[in-house]
Amino acid sequence: MPQASAIALGLVAGGGELPLAIAESARESGREVFILALTGSADEWVRSFPHEWASLGEVNKAIKALRAHDCGEVLLAGKLARPKFSEIKLDAKGVLAAPRVIAAARKGDDALLRAVVDLFEREGFHVVGTAEAAPGLLAPQGQMGRVAPSRESEEDIAAAFKIVRAMGTLDIGQAAVVCDGLALAVEAAEGTDAMVARVANLPEHLRGTPSRRRGVLAKAPKPIQDRKTDLPVIGVQTVRGAAAVGLAGIAVEAGGALVLGKSAVIAEADRLGLFLVGVAP
Amino acid sequence: MPQASAIALGLVAGGGELPLAIAESARESGREVFILALTGSADEWVRSFPHEWASLGEVNKAIKALRAHDCGEVLLAGKLARPKFSEIKLDAKGVLAAPRVIAAARKGDDALLRAVVDLFEREGFHVVGTAEAAPGLLAPQGQMGRVAPSRESEEDIAAAFKIVRAMGTLDIGQAAVVCDGLALAVEAAEGTDAMVARVANLPEHLRGTPSRRRGVLAKAPKPIQDRKTDLPVIGVQTVRGAAAVGLAGIAVEAGGALVLGKSAVIAEADRLGLFLVGVAP
Prior knowledge:
2 copies of one chain form a homodimer.
Chain A: E1 9-13, H1 18-28, E2 33-38, E3 51-54, H2 59-68, E4 73-77, H3 92-105, H4 109-122, E5 126-127, H5 130-133, E6 142-143, H6 151-169, E7 175-179, E8 182-186, H7 192-197, E9 216-219, E10 233-234, H8 236-244, E11 249-253, E12 258-259, H9 262-272, E13 275-279
Parallel strand pairs in A: 1-2, 1-4, 2-3, 4-5, 9-11, 10-12, 11-13
Antiparallel strand pairs in A: 6-13, 7-8, 7-9
């Protein structure tokens, strides 16, 4: 859709590296980008783009700002410092939206995000995902760096994807670590970095070491997840974490995961001797 | 099968509380019990039973000892300090068995245990499970202590069992923690105690606290697991761990999990205000 790039992209930005990576990727492809920066979550980089700040309850203000900047498309990205609902100041539209959003929040992150996407779509915005707005961030298919997975690692990759997909169906998590066919760790609410780090607590015969790398970290999106909101992400820190616990490499779903700072990520994987592959869904 | 109790039980004992609980339960029911104690894994309590020590590779010695004590039935229980295969000293039968056992070990704990069960069955022993040899250890159905689960907890129990059964099908683990429908933690190789303990690292709005208990720990056997080898276990420590991270209670599969020291476990759950229920499979 080449005409899509003519429409300004309104990026509702939380914290972390992802919103900046999306904004840069979209701008590099020639699009106008306006940032609706969430107070308390978004970082200072937003000042290098046309932007406005709004807090979580200021739905009116957010929608007005996005309309004023002709954002036909809206994208939600980044981490939210989830405040207590009682501490959120609500403007008029915020009051109307709150009951539905609070009810959704109790059902989990995915339900919460879907409720917020709904809210923008009812206001006439077309909500897009990172895959559409910044396709350059998507993991490609095949080997990314210099290191190729061994036959044992290929088997671990297959086993790990089977696990991650089953867990995704149940809305549990997006990542797992498998070594020699054994599930060493499975992600739930703690996040990928913490999940990978605890592999170091397992006995050495179950896992690899930096001098004899074994096992794989796999990440794939939940099959039931709205891909407009929450694709799994890897970055340089993910590579360093996997390296620290002796893993042989990282496998992500090609087209279903984001690689933030791709060239830096690949360079770090090469430097540390880890493979990095995108696996067809 | 009342005639079964006339046959001596040969208990191949690793570490932990489980083998002792089984041996005592079988002896209390009037059976002869012989312990084949695994060197480096089994504990000193074996000295209070007729016993012999053997290391992991001494298959010949183990089989001879079990035959010499007329053990028509054999039961494997307890934790193994899994050594490196290269460090195991093999006797003649050990050499013959090793390739199959090593190949199985690479496929996961369940495959390893099935291979060892096979080995004993090919030698003419009838391998039994804890459910047969010590049925008094099995979790009963229904509420065990004084505290009843709330309606929210009933929903978390249902969600947690759904997760645990899906994970079991994939040979991942046997336990999960769910709070308000959200999977807080899922067990893989780290074991239940470590899995429960890390719930404390999650933000408080996601979980309960000792003053306002929420969420449930669920344990159920893997559907594919050979119940002769590895039923999930809870004990007093499990109750204390669940209490420490603010959970409302523990649910296990009735007839599909072992409660070690049942009266002490129930007393501790009552004291700490946690429910303890056995759920029909």
